[in-house]
Amino acid sequence: MSFITIDFALFVTAVLLVYYIFPKKTRWTVLLIASYIFYGITGITNLIYILVTTVSAFICAMLIGKQGTKQKEYLKEHKESLTKEEKKSYKAGIKKKQKLILAAGLLINFGILVYLKYADWTIAYINLFRLSRFGRTDFIPFRNFILPLGISFYTFQTMGYLIDIYYGKYEHERNPFKFALFVSFFPQIVQGPISRFGELAPELFAEKDFDFTRIKSGFYRIMWGLFKKLVIADRLAGYVSGTIAQRDTYRGPYILLAVFFYSMQIYGDFSGGIDVALGVAEMFGITLHENFERPFFSKSISEYWQRWHMTLGTWFKDYIFYPLSLNKGIIRLGKTVREHGMEKIGKRIPIYIPMFIVWFTTGMWHGSQNRYVVWGLFNFLFIVLGTELEPLSQKIVLKLRLDEGGVLMRSYRVIKTFWLMSFLRIFDISKDVPSAFNAFKLIFKDWGSFRIERVFDELSLPFEDFTVAVTAIVIMFVFDLIQRRGSVRKRIFRLPVPAQWAILSLLVIAVSVFGYYGPGYDAASFIYGAF
Amino acid sequence: METVISILKGVHPEVDYETETGLIDKRIFDSFDVVNIVGELMDEFDIEITAEHMVPENFNSARAIYDLVRSLEEE
């Protein structure tokens, strides 16, 4: 059931009614049942996958928690009799057991994800190897798995919880049904945000009063999300894919425009979907973590990644980057290199090696194709270059007497970051790595042959649609800029009631009239739903 | 405290660690420095520093770093 369907709207309305009729104490059970119905509709087999993740993570967390309790009680009981060394050795024994349980949990869950996501990718390489090495043409057949909806998102969220329990960040959840809701909460299962247990659990289980302002606020946010998705993203999709597919005919500015529009498309699509998710949750009185913070206004690639898909970025930072970076082995390697006279390289090892792994994994997370891996590694390369060239950049700024905090320099950095990130997305819209490089080269060709009429007449973006898309993009950025000074909705709610209704009506009309409903009025699926 | 300061001096000898309270906020330490300092601290005091400890408040001054080490030693 896609977010962009009447079915979904009816489903949410029905769940809201039942939710607020139920006593406050038991409202979370309504959400649990609704989440399982929502997920069950996507396919009964999908329920098996999410149940495996829920049950295995619940049991592993419980076992890890029990070891922690056992340790606390033992140390309390033998507080006086144990030496410091004995305490340490006891703790080390417990930690080892906890590590084994954690490893089992991670292996089961990431094992399922990796198997479903990368089986065919691996088979393709095995077949290629067998053919080139032994001339064998009896290819291993592809498995053609269909990924269960949101499996990457709920697996990451649940494994984050397990790792947090291992580090003793909070107590494990003792109620399996409450835990099941944490894993399956329906607004966020399609494409995130990836929540942390410490943040989401209090939201899910707090006994909140019915608050009409939150219903209204949630509805505004849903409509804003639909505006970004239906008016901008879906309208541009045809031009972007059409131009890239016919890049030998439409070169130079056509491709450059496709690159620009794809950035708008993916931002409208993904952040729009997140707006819907956060808006729906808000109607239930639940605040989810923000996933975007005006990323196109970032002044560097590192900053961009702190503002785009924020919950995935912090997931990678907390659960992959830091554990690797603070790993004693990697730190010792850095130290050894430093002691051998290579101070600068040694100092960078505990940062750059984990960063390389993070970007490789981020690329793989986006899809089981080489182009995503290359995309990830280019991000890594650009971040390293940005960091290493920063002193030189500062020197140039000083020499030219430019004002680093001034409008000129800030605009330069924002535009540079925007285009670097947009160019990297060519890997996203091309079918493979060579096509992406080819498309990039073609941007520089045939500039003289550009005719804007061909965009309107030949590339699925008639003049009216072009005008609507550009106007909507401008509106989106204006609102982004206003939002910098605080919540736009809070400002709207301070206006007189008729003005509030007028704005909401305008938004609903804009979505209804200018929304791009595609052939057969079937809105395109969310791009990130496939990850 | 002396051991902490001597580790910090090994990275940035020019800083007055008795008075400086903006090691991160003033960008005296970059991320490379912090990770390398954390490595030294883990080795020296046999403690485990994890992602949740990697916040500016824990590294803005020698005193804050010392407090972090003490709290982890007591765990």
Task: Report what the structure shows.
The complex is a heterodimer of chains A (531) and B (75). Chain A has helices at residues 6-21, 27-41, 44-77, 84-134, 151-166, 176-184, 186-189, 197-205, 212-245, 253-283, 301-307, 310-325, 328-339, 343-366, 370-399, 407-424, 426-429, 433-442, 452-458, 463-483, 488-493, 497-514. Chain A is mainly alpha-helical and 531 residues long. In chain A, helix 9 (212-245) runs antiparallel to helix 10 (253-283). The radius of gyration of chain A is 26 Å and the shape is globular. Chain B has one domain (2-11, 24-74). Helices cover 51% and strands 0% of the residues of chain B. In chain B, helix 1 packs antiparallel against helix 2 (31-45). The longest helix of chain B is centred in the middle third of the chain and has 15 residues, at 31-45. The chains are: A mainly alpha (531), B mainly alpha (75).
The total count of helices of chain B amounts to: 3
Spatial extent as radius of gyration of chain A:
26 Å
Which structural class fits the helix and strand makeup of chain A?
mainly alpha
Which secondary-structure class do the elements of chain B indicate? Answer: mainly alpha
- Write down the secondary-structure element order of chain B: HHH
Distance between the termini of chain A: 17 Å
| Order of secondary-structure elements of chain A | HHHHHHHHHHHHHHHHHHHHHH
Classify the helix fraction of chain B into a percent range.
Answer: 40-55%
Number of helices of chain A: 22
How many strands of chain A? Answer: 0
Q: Tell me, what's the shape of chain B?
A: globular
Topology at a glance:
The complex is a heterodimer of chains A (531) and B (75).
Chain A: H1 6-21, H2 27-41, H3 44-77, H4 84-134, H5 151-166, H6 176-184, H7 186-189, H8 197-205, H9 212-245, H10 253-283, H11 301-307, H12 310-325, H13 328-339, H14 343-366, H15 370-399, H16 407-424, H17 426-429, H18 433-442, H19 452-458, H20 463-483, H21 488-493, H22 497-514
Chain B: H1 2-11, H2 31-45, H3 62-74
Helix pairs in contact in B: 1-2
